[in-house]
From TrEMBL:
This is RNA polymerase, sigma-24 subunit, ECF subfamily. GO terms for molecular function: DNA binding; sigma factor activity. It holds the Pfam family Sigma70_r2. Residues 112-162 form the RNA polymerase sigma factor 70 region 4 type domain. Belongs to the sigma-70 factor family. ECF subfamily. It comes from Haliscomenobacter hydrossis (strain ATCC 27775 / DSM 1100 / LMG 10767 / O). The keyword Plastid does not apply. Residues 18-79 form the RNA polymerase sigma-70 region domain. SUPFAM superfamilies: Sigma2 domain of RNA polymerase sigma factors (SSF88946), Sigma3 and sigma4 domains of RNA polymerase sigma factors (SSF88659).
Amino acid sequence: MLYAIQNPIYEQLDKVSNSLRAFSLKLTGNYNDADDLYQDTAVRIITNADKYNQGTNFKAWAVTIMRNIFINNYRKKVRRNMIVDQTPNNFYINSGEERVANDGEHDVAFGELMRLVDTLPNDFREPFLMAYDGFKYEEIAEELGSPLGTIKSRIFFARKKLQKLYEENYRERA
């Protein structure tokens, strides 16, 4: 029994305690976070006991409370980790007065890069070019009829291969 007080909410919470703990672990994937989530849920259940309708499914009510707490905590965490760029958009725009020297266009021309891309096997070249054209991974996977993970790995390995080819063919220019 969780508490010495004989209260129907405490008794029902005690009965579903193991299920709630398992569900909290499933949501968080971490024992410490699961314990915190369970405790937050238990407190919320006890403080809102008057809102529970006797005779309804207590476990479903408790699981809903736990899920909502988890979602709210996740959203708070995402908002806390979000970085907002307050830089004015025109900060990096060239005013036309002075050009920044950049020899990148002289090192490797676009045509030379495309010749390197053409050396890739078709299974890698096609998804890479679609990604280059701005397609999302999901769109590429759907268009090519391949699993999403396969598309991501092919694009990754295409990039690695192109980096290697670039170093082999154009290193002496740098």
